[in-house]
Design a protein that fits this description.
Length: 207
């Protein structure tokens, strides 16, 4: 268990040795318990617990951190997904945005839909090529507003990814929601990038 999901102590002096392979670990610090995640595209540290009593913990402090190794998701791929979502209306659509570490390239990967309707989507997870990682899981809500449902919360709690929802898909200015999902950490973004909104607004709307 310690090999697959280790718990380490934050040194009071000096730095903690960097993770050597993709995975997760718990870091015990004087200011709480932290989850560190390493993926080819992301290195993330988030606090997942605090101490209930003022016990003297002889460890160092840890700061939350987000390092997006892959860089920014290209707005053009958000536009491509918007086009797919509009073609699929009134039903929901889904796709993944992936990144390859060896080439540094992103791509949009449509999912294999098993069932979908105006309020439901069930699909098979795409098979990725070697070296390719899931970065963003996208789905649409057809004519409905963009939001994260209880089903989304359940589906997302075991993944490490960004989740993106596109709603009001027939509008020239559809609603959008995005959040970080990291092994139970569900962290909504205050807003989506303006470049994404611009890319979606350029997609032709069939009214």
């Amino acid at each position: 268990m310690q090999q697959s999901f280790p718990t380490v102590m934050m040194p009071r002096f000096g730095s903690l040795q960097a993770m050597q392979a993709d995975g997760e670990r718990l870091v015990v610090a004087s200011n709480g318990l932290f989850l560190e995640i390493l993926r080819p595209w992301l290195n993330l540290v988030r606090r997942v617990g605090q101490f209930d009593v003022a016990t003297a913990i002889p460890y160092g402090m840890v700061k939350e951190r987000t390092e997006l190794i892959c860089g920014k998701v290209p707005p053009a791929l958000i536009g491509e997904f918007a086009a797919l979502a509009r073609q699929t209306m009134p039903n929901e659509a889904g796709a993944w945005i992936t990144w390859r570490r060896d080439t540094g390239t992103f791509r949009l990967v449509p999912v294999k839909v098993l069932e979908h309707s105006a309020g439901h989507l069930r699909y098979e997870r795409p098979e990725l090529v070697a070296g390719e990682s899931l970065v963003m899981d996208c789905h649409s809500h057809g004519a409905a507003e963009a939001f994260f449902s209880h089903t989304d919360n359940t589906d997302d709690r075991h993944d490490v990814k960004f989740a993106f929802v596109l709603g009001n898909c027939a509008s020239r200015h559809p609603s959008m929601k995005v959040r970080l999902c990291a092994k139970g950490v569900l962290e909504p973004a205050a807003d989506v990038p303006a470049a994404w909104r611009h890319a979606v607004s350029q997609v032709e709307v069939a009214l």
